[in-house]
Amino acid sequence: MSTAGFNSQNGTGTGQTYTNGPSQNPVALQQPPGVGYGMNHQPAYNPMQTKVLGPPSPALYASGPYQPVPPGPQLGSYPPPPAQPLLTRPPIGVLPSHTPPQSASPGPGPRQAQATPPAQATPPPPAVTSTSYYTGPPAWQYAAPRGPAPNHVNPAAAAPPHMSHGSAQPPGPGAPPTSIHGYPQPGTAPPPMNPPPPHTYQPNRPAYGPPPTAPPAGPPGATGTPPPPKVDGDVAGNGPQAPNSYNHVDNRMAGAAQPGPPGRHLGHYPSLPPGYQNTLAPPPSSLHPALQAATQPYIQGPQPYQQQPGGPGPDQLSPSMAAMSLQSGTPEALRVVNLLQERNLLPPAPVPAPTPCLTQDLQKLNCSPEVFRCTLTSIPQTQSLLNKAKLPLGLLLHPFKDLSQLPVVTSSTIVRCRSCRTYINPFVSFLDQRRWKCNLCYRVNDVPEEFMYNPVSRSYGEPHKRPEVQNATIEFIAPSEYMLRPPQPAVYLFVLDVSHNAVETGYLSVFCQSLLDNINALPGDSRTKVGFITFDSTIHFYNLQEGLSQPQMLIVSDIEDIFLPTPDSLLVNLNECKELVQDLLKSLPNLFEKTMETQSALGSALQAAFKLLSPTGGRMSVFQTQLPNLGVGALQSREDPNQRASAKDVQHLSPATDFYKKLALDCSGQQVAVDLFLLSAQYCDLASLGCISRFSAGSVYYYPSYHHQHNPAQVERFQRDLKRYLTRKIGFEAVMRIRCTKGLSIHTFHGNFFVRSTDLLSLPNVNPDAGFAVQMSIEENLDDMQVVSFQAALLYTSSKGERRIRVHTMCLPVVSSLSDVFAGADVQAVTGLLACMAVDRSVTSSLSDARDAMTNAAIDSLSSYRQSALTIQQPGLLAPACLRLFPLYILALLKQKAFRTGTSTRLDERVFAMYQLKYQPLAFAMLMIHPALYRLDDLSDEGALNINERTIPQPRVLQLSVEKLSREGAFLMDAGLVMYLWIGRNCHQNFLSQVLGVSSYAAVPEKLCLLPELDTAESQRTRALVSWLRDQRPFFPSLHIIRDESQLKPHFMQNMIEDRTESALSYYEFLLHLQQQISK
Ligand SMILES: [Zn+2]
Q1: What is the C-alpha separation between 346 and 892, in angstroms, rounded?
Q2: Average pLDDT of 944-952?
Q3: Separation of CA 514 and ligand 1 centre (Å)
Q4: How far is the CA of 443 from the centre of ligand 1 (A)?
Q5: Residue 1012, Cβ density class (10 Å: 0-12 exposed, 13-18 middle, ≥19 buried)
Q6: Helices 922-929 and 886-895, interaxial angle, to 10°?
Q7: How far is the CA of 445 from the centre of ligand 1 (A)?
Q8: How much distance in Å is there from the Cα of 741 to the middle of ligand 1?
Q9: How much distance in Å is there from the Cα of 416 to the middle of ligand 1?
Q10: Cα 742 to averaged position of ligand 1 atoms, centre (Å)
Q11: Where does the pLDDT of residue 830 fall: very low under 50, low under 70, confident under 90, or very high at 90 and above?
């Protein structure tokens, strides 16, 4: 096996920029490698000296050679409105809106909608008004809405009752007493409140209006704090009037019902893995004496912190490590685990994110790991130290995640570093009342006068208590300088395949019904626009202009030179034309019921849709059921089913044409994102089609073998996904910039977007279910730093037309010893990032290369741990406890649909899995990689969660091995997008009757995908668990109830990662392989 796999060539220029695809960042690629940024290149990454490198293979850890480009537009400067292309009008001049243009051939009789001349029709009002963006006077609005998913602060939801508790702040000095965005009128005296937690603000100052001018009796050093009426803000729980609306500093991300350490907890999962003891070493008696010492938990001794020979001396122990020692004194992360001896590695509950070794004060303020995670929670001081660890350095982000509590600030001055434009955040330092030091570039900045006033405590001279400095996640409503054009309205265009194949699947009626059901829940405001295009071999537009008596279909058959027949009446104001839209949705499924048209001119339909959306930007939702085979963008089947299982390498992972990518980039330039719903039983070349979404920051949904009758599970999934899709929040014309402390640099991005400049991602749409990952390298030594910070800023237009900026800031310690680097490894984040890198590698190089590289990642890091971090050499395959799951996860990746070989895997399904790995937030990607297995026939309430008076059983997570199955049992496998409930042949009668409602094993139906709602305790427990698991994620996993004879059983068994298959090693064999490689 090659040992060169994942070793990277830093700074040599031979590596590749792993942007999200080959030449994905054309700007960057024009730059000579290794130029720019004036950075001191680290000594070329020197893979382990002892290793003999093969021919340099592309590095997964492309830590060096990214190509910087001149700084792009600042986030602050909203990108200039793109040149608006002239609308392509029909060559026949202005047409009456009810008459198809000459070159648009009317369809056959039944398809030509009756056109009633809109005699009384008035032109639609101007689509875009510029009045709704914030232009008001300086005003402080502060709100911490608690409602779910506040895309935009819904005034109704955000104000009473919570806001009436005083968190809605009146405008600041001189503000007129008007309500902005529906916030409570200033001057309204907030009612009494609960006591505040520490660090909360005291909004119940009586004073409202201009900041006090009299010298306050404030804290020492304050230049002017009005005397607090009853309390002083430093003490918790003082005064009955304080609000509690700010205490989400501590539990911001955790659902109310979910216990757990403040701000740490994943929220979904039981907070304390009750059986974590399980991961302790087996009883000493079962171990070789030599291993006993090694497997003792590192609880008391200083052993884990012993310095490496030649390493820094004890006096150089970083403060963070000191902090760590001060913590519970249990560096569990560094406990030595012999993987060959210890079988029960899985914690009984899902693996929590590690906590960085920061002082409590800092950690309390830190960003939630649900939003922001780093592969190494202790950042190595130098690139060479990072290179030694052989672990990838990168960030995983879920920046637009639905948050139950999101502080929102309206301010005329958003305080940012004058030098690097970092937003002020909890990790800056205040030199004094008037100056703050940037934590990214260390520039000293002035505190603006306005910032001296704290809207929260309504006091002067407390800039460090402002919400911006108390919250690692915060959202600003941007003042007008953040926009160069009025914020765009919410615009939704639906592009629907209506070919014979499409009609056969029956998706159209599900779509139409779903949109009808949710039409009032589409995010937007009075400006919201919608439009529809259908297509087969021709393109059909729908005139929905107000005043028409019914929708009017306009058919364009010239697909080579597509034009818009009536550009002004195809995208209409939803509120004004809702009835026509509803009429259309009701009639569409019937309209094409009898079609015999089999061809699909998808490319032309996309071009038409792009033309329609270009002037405004917006969201294009494309539904496609077959391989496009007509006109531009036509594709041919590239899959040979006979090659699926046998080929060592998989061909055709990259697009067949650049048509879809080019169009996506055009869309991106016009603030249009394209979401693709692919519903097909046949090969559709997702590798080509998916580019339309990938580069326009859209999403890809895939429903293989969708059929309204034959595949009810897919139909249910499609329905549920659609509901979420149509109603979830959305941000338009977004950009995201990720900054990090000087010395670190970001070089490769993963996800769906276009990289506009080195660190600026263009996101025509951003949705709450999108994840991103970035890779980083250390360009300058971080010797003098105790901590470093990362900041992601997402600037977007809400569906209500507000320009908003969501800012997340994470702080991590810097360490100087290899042990400390290992101790901070976040094995799930490492795995998630490696998966992204391996997807790129599969496309740019080959699947086998990517597989080798993943294996080598495990070999290299464990080898480095053994050679450089372990102080006592012992036999066995040793890993620090924090990385004990690393080989298992790597093996799981090798067996994942995206990367597996030797098993028949449809090309589209493989490509879709690859998309998912790059695009899903980490928590969901991990379920795809390593599903959770639970036993269900003996569920009990012991250790159950209680959420909203529902009892949710918490069975322990089992190893993925048939060893864990029993014929007497029933087992649920949660693999993210899909769940399997496997029923053992001798399953207890009780489970069969009380949960499945059948009399015997033989009576379990073949295609059961629904748990019957029985009024038994067993049924309730089972359904509570399944629905709770489903509720944790934004997509809807199908449930398949399978028996031994079921067709789907192989799918279930393929996820038994620890077992051997014909073509893949068992976990134990894999460990032996790793050990063999390491001891070479
Ligand atoms: Zn700065």
Answers
A1: 13
A2: 91
A3: 48
A4: 5
A5: exposed
A6: 70
A7: 8
A8: 8
A9: 8
A10: 9
A11: very high
Q: Is the peptide bond before 71 cis (omega within 30 degrees of 0)?
A: no
- CA 371 – ligand 1 centroid, Å: 22
Question: Is 423 strand, coil or helix?
Answer: strand
**How far, in Å, CA of 421 to CA of 75, rounded?**
8
Helices (H), 104-163: 155-158
Instruction: Report how far apart, in Å, the C-alpha atoms of 868 and of each of 37, 1073, 1076 are.
Output: 32, 21, 18
Classify residue 760 as exposed, middle or buried by CB count within 10 Å of its CB (0-12, 13-18, 19+): buried
Separation between Cα atoms, residue 594 and residue 60, nearest integer Å: 52
- Taking the centre of ligand 1 as the mean of its atom positions, its distance from the CA of residue 471, in whole angstroms, is 18
How far, in Å, is the centroid of ligand 1 from the Cα of 414? Answer: 14
Strand pairing report for 473-477 and 408-410: parallel
Closest CA to 755 of 620, 664, 690, 654: 664
Rounded distance from Cα 139 to ligand 1 centre (Å): 26
pLDDT digits (tens, 9 = 90+) for 324-347: 433 344 478 889 999 999 988 999
CA–CA separation, 144 and 153 (whole Å)? 9
Residues with Cβ within 8 Å of 731's Cβ and at least 6 positions away in sequence, in order, are 151, 400, 763, 765, 766, 767, 794, 796, 797, 798, 799, 804
Token readout for 1033 is 């994620």
At residue 67, does pLDDT exceed 90? no
How many distinct helices (H) and strands (E) make up the chain? Answer: 27, 34
Q: What is d(CA 395, CA 808) in angstroms, rounded to the nearest whole number?
A: 12
Q: What are phi and psi of 385, to 5 degrees?
A: -65, -40
Residue 180 has pLDDT above 70, yes or no: no
Q: How far is the CA of 517 from the centre of ligand 1 (A)?
A: 48
Name the pTM for this structure: 0.74
Q: Which has more pLDDT, 932 or 870?
A: 932
823: phi then psi, degrees, rounded to nearest 5: -60, -25
Q: C-alpha distances in angstroms, 882 versus 329, 336, 829, 968?
A: 16, 9, 12, 35
**Which residues neighbour ligand 1 (ion) by CB within 5 Å?**
417, 419-420, 422, 438, 440-441, 443
Q: Which amino acid is present at 190?
A: P
Distance 740 CA to ligand 1 centre (A): 10
Cα–Cα distance list, 803 to 610, 760, 772 (Å)? 24, 17, 22
Separation of 420 CA from ligand 1 center, angstroms?
A: 4
Cβ atoms of residues 473 and 427 within 8 Å: no
Q: What share of the chain is helix, strand, coil (3-state, %, to 5)?
A: 25, 15, 55
Q: How confident is the model at residue 642 (pLDDT cuts 50, 70, 90)?
A: confident
CA 697 to ligand 1 center in whole angstroms: 28
Share of the chain above pLDDT 70, in %: 69
Stated as kind and residue range, the H or E segment containing 535 is: strand 529-535
Contact 453, 211 (CB under 8 A): yes
Pair type for strands 336-338 and 429-432 = unpaired
Query: From ligand 1's centre to the CA of 421, what distance in Å?
Result: 6
Closest CA to 900 of 860, 856, 854: 854
- Tell me the CA–centroid distance for residue 866 and ligand 1, in Å: 39
CB 814 within 8 A of CB 786: yes
For residue 440, report the distance from its CA to the centre of ligand 1, in Å: 5
Contact 41, 74 (CB under 8 A): no
CA of 790 to the centre of ligand 1 (A): 12
Compute the distance from residue 779 Cα to the ligand 1 centre, in Å.
Answer: 17
Q: Which residue has the higher pLDDT, 646 or 899?
A: 899
CA of 875 to the centre of ligand 1 (A): 49
What is the Å distance from ligand 1's center to 431 Cα?
A: 15
455 C-alpha to ligand 1 centroid (Å): 24
Nearest by Cα to 995 from 969, 971, 974, 1013: 1013
